Amino acid sequence: MGEKLNILTHMRVTVTLVVGADGSTSKDGNSAGVSSAVDRSAFLSRRRSADCILIGGNTARTEPYHRTPVPVVVISKSLINPLADNRLAHCWNLSPEDALDRASRTFGPNIHVEAGVGIIRQLIDAGRVDFLELSVTDVVGGEDLIDVDELLSHFSQIEEKLVSGTRFISAKKID
């Protein structure tokens, strides 16, 4: 048990999420519909610093994860790996919390979560997210809405900047 606690105390879990101005996390079936060029650039830069990326099965099936700079873990109940062509992909039938623990032990403590709203909510509610990197674009009319203000209420030390029409919000977990 002591080893598990040691691993968990050093883990750094960052959720990266892009939303439209109305809180939509996807449009026309994926996040590209709510993203912007500056968001995409920031997103790709951040993910290179991760030890591992954690996503859900739906994200794996709808987003471009066939090439990643670091290992990607797909949490899915399906026995079929939707990223079989990505040699860095792993498909685990685990809860998000258990997947975080295993990913930290397997790949390293710096885990980036790029999953859908359900997994993100579950991890935030369980107190397992340390940092939130949120990009808010001017897109409206998308799907899978999330309440940005409610999401941010779980974090402190919120910093915000505007770059080329995209709001970047960095938030740290409330201790």
Automatic annotation (TrEMBL):
InterPro entries: DHFR-like_dom_sf, RibDG_C. One of its GO terms (molecular function) is 5-amino-6-(5-phosphoribosylamino)uracil reductase activity. SUPFAM superfamilies: Dihydrofolate reductase-like (SSF53597). GO terms for biological process: riboflavin biosynthetic process. Residues 13-139 form the Bacterial bifunctional deaminase-reductase C-terminal domain. This is Unannotated protein. It comes from freshwater metagenome.
